[in-house]
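Example record

The entry below shows one chain as it appears in the dataset: sequence first, then structure tokens.
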Amino acid sequence: MFETLAKAEGDKILALMGMYRADPRANKLDLGVGVYKNQKGETPIMSALAKAEQWQVANQASKSYVGLAGDVGFNDAITTLALGEGYDKSRVRTQQAPGGSGALRIVAEMLAGAKPGATIWVSDPTWANHIPTFTSAGLVIKHYPYFDAATGQVRFDDMCEALSAMPQGDIVLLHGCCHNPTGANLTGEQWQKVGDLLLERDLLPFIDIAYQGFGDGLEEDAAGLRHLASRVPELVVALSCSKNFAVYCDRVGAAILMGRNAEEADKAISQLALVARKSYSMPPNHGAAVIRHLLETPALKTEWQDELEAMRMRMLTLRQGLASALRQHSNSDRFDFVAQHRGMFSRLGLSPAQVDSLREEHAIYMVGDSRINVAGLPDDGLDELAAAIVATL
């Protein structure tokens, strides 16, 4: 049986991790892997989450299944975090999923079942895992223009032109905040224009929100999603808790559906549950139960919000510091966009050859498209990093 298989092409980011681990140079720097890191280069457990986890371990009475929908209390709490207190509960349904990637997959497969051969438009560029996830679920992939690598800005006019020409009923993937891999976000006014075009063309928005709280704040980062939810008749959301709760290995996420009415929302969530049942049966509960307790306990929620804000501010400080150092070494404003972007990532606009040069000559590791993890920047080494980057230009 196995002799018929071809060896799969390795994941480029995982391969980069392996190269980094094997590199003996003491000055090596990892800017590739998309996890938050503190000043020591560690990915710590958040204090509020650790306390919630201790409570969960002490109070959990059973390891029995919690059901296909997952932890209902978690679903309610995380949906409120994303959509706000005033969302229309009669039209919204939520299914816990194994991470944001699991949510993306089950929603995509449900949509493919609702409309076989459906087209989903993704931004150019988008997160590397979007395309294989959607393709394997049965969706047809097309791209709309989004990022200008030369200026570091959103190609918003081109994006709007593409939205205006999309066939009615197509699906549009939008990054809720902190666009991965570029860090270039839509403004509030731009979200309003996108909403206008979605309504005009009868397009279904599919929001991937994985970094709420990492950009401009918890409420601010959800503003685009909430604006669309207040206007469009239907939408779907894939939500990840990996980054803002730092529960990467616990795989905590949610799929949120909003229907035209309660009846259609019920039908959609029943199909989503069927997809989940066929895919992995029951979602993992531990991480979701911990987050539920955290969000339901005012003191822990406040502590978590304070920790999250400190993480956000650290990334903003690093952005500003790197942009300043790059301006000084390049004697230009070419990289000023780094300070304007938000979230964990920015795409520097370097060529693959320049990225290779940084790795080979300076032990600086980043993804081939020059995406860097801002949280991995060295607090006391920005000047040296900027000098190395400029040396490759």
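Notes for this example: The first helix runs from residue 12 to 22. The chain has a mean pLDDT of 95.
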